Amino acid sequence: MFLDSGKLAKKFAIVLYTYYMKVAKTVSASSIAEFFIQKANLSGKVITNKKIQKLVYYAQAWSLVVNKKPLFKEKIEAWVHGPAIKSVYAKYKEFGFNPIKKEPDIELINKISDIDKNLLEQVWKLYGKYDSSYLEMLTHSEAPWQDARAGLEASENSEQEITRKSMMDFYTRKMEEATAK
What we know:
There is one protein chain. The protein is mostly helical. The protein has helices at residues 5-23, 29-43, 49-67, 86-92, 106-109, 114-127, 132-140, 143-148, 164-180; strands spanning 77-79, 82-84. The protein has nine helices and two strands. A two-stranded antiparallel sheet has the order 1-2. Strand 1 and strand 2 form a beta hairpin.
């Protein structure tokens, strides 16, 4: 009796998916922020709370597209200065708009899977070279933030969520446009 290749492929996919989800589980948004603090420290680049917010946002967006899963569970809100995660903002609030000068929490960074660290490296490579004002302008020009703030004044505070679906849809289109060229 021969094995049905379709059933075999389906079983393999389930085993692979189960393994992947165990290996690449979600971590806290703070772990992702600490990773970027470490990258900034090692490269001699300035990193602020505002810049971390944008990097963590882009990391979540691209994880949804590339890895088909969120990096972290915390919601991302459409604040005046762009996407923000409350817990990350609170953690680095003491620095205000000034550079964050601290040693990264290696224990938090070590909770990130190698698969996710590879994605974070790419996010850093693409977005880490820009300052917080440029990243703010960039997020303000993109649909997920704009849609979440629809009907709000430019300076109006908001806790409106930037949904994972809006991020996945928008950045999937971006990837498709880039690869179609």
